[in-house]
Amino acid sequence: MNVVRQLVQQTARQGKLSRAVPPARLCSTGVVGIQRLTHDNLKPSLLRSSTLRDAAQTRHLSSTESYKFEVINVQDEDDFKKRVLENDKPVIVDFHATWCGPCKLLGPRLEKLLSEENGKVIMAKVDIDENSDLAMEYGVRSVPTVMGMKDGKVQSQFVGLIDDDQIQTFVDKLIIS
After folding, report:
1. What is the CATH number of the domain that holds 64?
2. Do 27 and 96 sit in the same domain of this protein?
3. Residue partners of 33: CB distance under 8 A and separation at least 6
4. Which residue out of 84, 100, 123, 143 is catalytically annotated?
5. Which of 29, 70, 129, 147 is 20 to 30 A from 16 via CA?
6. Which of 109, 118, 110, 105 is nearest to 63 (CA)?
7. Is-catalytic flag, 27?
8. pTM for the complete prediction?
């Protein structure tokens, strides 16, 4: 991140950017929200866009059929109990960390696959750094750890990255159990 930040700030000071980049728009995955960068030695393809997510709110993501499903960002143990354990629907719980590379790859894949389930399952995201007590309570030793919960009990789980067809099988088993 520091290299990207320094490069963009240095280029902005030299007046070689078509528009200046506010420092708040920089993140660890590159520059966020820039439509176009022009510089003799800086190519836009070298900078990746990403979206900022509001961790304090529930998000609704649209699939290709424009059906919405619920993604819960767990805030604390009481929130977890109320929104995950007491939920009538099956819940896929993604224990992740912001610094975890495999977590950043798995999260969007899970969201995409779950969006195709027509609301039969809910996704809950638990940041292990913010909710370490929950991670310890559920025996999370490495991230990403994904648990399938139904009626407040863990039905199955997996750790690490797995193929999309294995994730789909995991979700299907949770729904029919």
Report:
1. 3.40.30.10
2. no
3. 25, 49
4. 100
5. 29
6. 118
7. no
8. 0.63
